[in-house]
């Protein structure tokens, strides 16, 4: 979503950091471009004005302009103010209240309230081990209550039985009572939406609030609606009193202005963001991490968390042991490609790697995209067990059969086999024993560069035992070592992008040495 803004701000700020000295005129010219970039991204005008005024006030002081690296100081000021505009510290859903904690979902029709309600319930169950009850209060939209029930069945979440003819306020009161009797920790009320804000909607919301006494009132807003979402948040807050925001479709191609404006305009924290259609594609909103992504600094912490959620630690350990012996077959390659897809695909991973945001376009131009991985998985799936374990069996007749089964041609199969051979050769080299092993050298070298010692494999720290503050500190250490600057990532073309459990990044000639110490899936 922030790609256009990222490109614009990146080019503006790179122009500043490339200079040895800055004048006030240089800073003013850069801030004019920053202002234009934010307005083009659909950020609210008053938010842009206050942002640029604060940056200018700090950036034109004598201490900045005469410092050793004034350009980098200005970038830091922009970064800090961007974090402040987004809310400073991340705020999650507050469950510190007597059970059952009532969470009321509000918003316009089509913003994704029902799906988001199920995603939040799934998150609370799987991550926080809470017993959740969902209830649909939407008696006007056809099959709205049935939709929530079906989502509950799919995700194994309790839903309030539907009784025809009940009013939304009666359903809310019944849901709270049922949650008390059923021993539920949280009850989520999915209220009705409208195509626009009207008086009956607001009166109904107020009545539901009185009957259910919600601890959290979350406004679900479509991030693609731009400034309308900001006005929507203001109106709902005035009439109902929202406690936080949930932005949906953050994986879309919108300009990101709503996300940057809503916190500043309403003063209410953005608590969660929807990054996809699947049940698990809901993330906490961390202002610092979003600011890092916008300014092209990467987001190692989120990448580590995503890896911990999606990579099976036992499977990764077994694969690492196999690779230490120099073995790497097509089953292993398929596992690596599947893990990459779970973590958001090539684009999602690259967007979170420090200094790698600009690589996405180059890789797409070279044909290295997630569709390519889908074709490669289809090819491997069309092989027999023996062929996957021993690719040398693949002669012309077998390739013809596989191409027919996977909807590809012989050239695609040959490219896959060539990539596998290169990766298998790399695994043999990296699996070398003793002090000279490439894997040890690579991991030890990266750890040394970042000033880290002990912990996981090859001197890397055990990431699974770190709390979020320690992970944030790790990110800062990585940036200080040069990993947060364009071109500062060691090892592309022969090094390593940490984090995919043992294989190299296909097509880049480097290595994915694997995240050590990942927690086991529960």
From TrEMBL:
Location(s), subcellular: Cell inner membrane; Cytoplasm
E.C. numbers: 3.6.5.4
Gene Ontology molecular function, alphabetical: 7S RNA binding; GTP binding; GTPase activity
Catalytic activity: GTP + H2O = GDP + phosphate + H(+)
Region (Disordered) location: 485-522
Gene3D superfamilies associated with the record: P-loop containing nucleotide triphosphate hydrolases, Signal recognition particle SRP54, nucleotide-binding domain, Signal recognition particle, SRP54 subunit, M-domain
The protein's name in its UniProt record: Signal recognition particle protein
Organism whose genome encodes this protein: Rhizobium lusitanum
Phylogenetic classification of the source organism: Bacteria, Pseudomonadati, Pseudomonadota, Alphaproteobacteria, Hyphomicrobiales
Gene this chain is encoded by: ffh
């Amino acid at each position: 979503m922030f790609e256009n803004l990222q490109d614009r701000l990146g080019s503006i700020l790179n122009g500043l950091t490339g200079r040895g000295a800055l004048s006030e005129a240089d800073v003013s010219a850069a801030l004019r471009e920053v202002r234009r970039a934010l307005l083009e991204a659909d950020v609210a005008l008053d938010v842009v004005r206050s942002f640029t005024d604060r940056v200018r006030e700090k950036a034109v002081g004598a201490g900045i302009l005469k410092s050793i690296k004034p350009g980098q100081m200005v970038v830091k000021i922009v970064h800090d103010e961007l974090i402040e505009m987004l809310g400073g510290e991340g705020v999650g859903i507050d469950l510190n209240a007597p059970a059952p904690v009532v969470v009321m979902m509000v918003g316009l029709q089509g913003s994704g309230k029902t799906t988001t309600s199920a995603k939040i319930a799934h998150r609370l169950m799987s991550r926080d081990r809470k017993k959740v009850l969902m209830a649909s209060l939407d008696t006007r939209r056809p099959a709205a209550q049935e939709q929530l029930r079906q989502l509950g069945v799919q995700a194994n979440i309790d839903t309030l039985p539907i009784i025809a003819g009940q009013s939304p306020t009666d359903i809310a009161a019944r849901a709270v009572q049922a949650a008390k009797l059923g021993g539920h920790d949280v009850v989520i009320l999915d209220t009705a939406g409208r195509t626009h804000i009207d008086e009956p909607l607001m009166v109904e919301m107020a009545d539901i609030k009185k009957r259910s006494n919600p601890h959290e009132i979350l406004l679900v807003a479509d991030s693609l609606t731009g400034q309308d979402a900001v006005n929507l948040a203001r109106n709902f807050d005035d009439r109902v009193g929202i406690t936080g925001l949930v932005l949906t479709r953050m994986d879309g191609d919108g300009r990101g202005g709503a996300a940057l404006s809503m916190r500043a305009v309403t003063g209410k924290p953005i608590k969660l963001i929807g990054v996809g259609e699947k049940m698990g594609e809901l993330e906490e909103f961390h202002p610092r991490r979003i600011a890092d992504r916008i300014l092209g600094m990467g987001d190692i912490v989120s990448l580590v968390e995503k890896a911990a959620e999606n990579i099976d630690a036992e499977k990764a350990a077994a694969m690492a042991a196999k690779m230490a012996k120099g073995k790497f077959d097509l089953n292993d390659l398929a596992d690596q490609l599947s893990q990459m897809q779970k973590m958001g695909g090539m684009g999602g991973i690259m967007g979170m790697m420090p200094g790698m945001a600009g690589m996405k376009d180059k890789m797409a131009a070279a044909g290295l995209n997630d569709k390519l991985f889908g074709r490669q998985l289809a090819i491997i799936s069309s092989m027999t067990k023996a062929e996957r374990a021993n690719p040398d069996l693949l002669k012309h007749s077998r390739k013809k059969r596989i191409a027919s089964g996977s909807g590809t041609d012989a050239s695609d199969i040959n490219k896959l086999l060539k990539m596998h051979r290169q990766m298998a050769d790399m695994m043999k080299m990296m699996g070398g024993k003793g002090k000279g092993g490439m894997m040890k050298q690579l991991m030890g070298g990266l750890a040394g560069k970042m000033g880290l010692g002990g912990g996981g494999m090859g001197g890397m720290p055990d990431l699974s035992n770190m709390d979020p503050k320690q992970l944030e500190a790790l990110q800062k250490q990585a940036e200080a070592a040069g990993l947060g600057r364009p071109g500062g990532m060691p090892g592309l073309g022969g090094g390593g992008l940490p984090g995919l459990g043992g294989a190299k990044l296909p097509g880049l000639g480097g290595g994915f040495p694997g995240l050590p110490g990942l927690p086991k899936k529960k």
